[in-house]
Amino acid sequence: MLTKIVSLIIQPLYPKSEGANPYNIIGSVLFTQKILGFNRLIPWPAHFTSRIINPKNIKLGTRSFPGWSQGCYIQAKNGILIGDNLRMGPNVGLISANHSLDDYDRWEASKPITIGNNVWIGMNSIVMPGITIGDNVVIGANSTVTKDIPSNTICAGNPCKVLSQKPAYKGRVYSSS
Fold first, then answer.
1. What CATH superfamily is the domain 49-165?
2. Catalytic residue flag (residue 47)
3. Is this prediction's pTM over 0.85?
4. Alpha helices (H) along the chain
């Protein structure tokens, strides 16, 4: 009964949190984000040590909260499209635009970063501008993603490379549609 009440409180604040443990949201971000004001303008749970630039350019699926882990840097100048059920470790960087090489005050245009459904990005990894990551992908810790990653793979390294195929995702499937 108490879980249903807590869920009713969380749902209007974080509408795409279906299936997430509401106690995790309350315990990890609600107080610092909504009451103290760290990342207050971010409409999903975000840790107070994460930095999210241009959140209006980020489109999210259900249960995807970029920046919920500590120390993430998410820069969405060229846009970031994220599917359902994204998991990101601490200190992950999603960088959608680089500085111009001849004028460091100018940003280079590129296509947005696109991340599929059921993706796990390990600690300290970086995803560079214009990258597409398919569905059902695990990216190992400390990886630098400089090329598109196909669906159903386990990848790691600097630069990130496919290491093996990944079996189908067996967790609950969430749909933002």
1. Hexapeptide repeat proteins (2.160.10.10)
2. no
3. yes
4. 2-13, 22-25
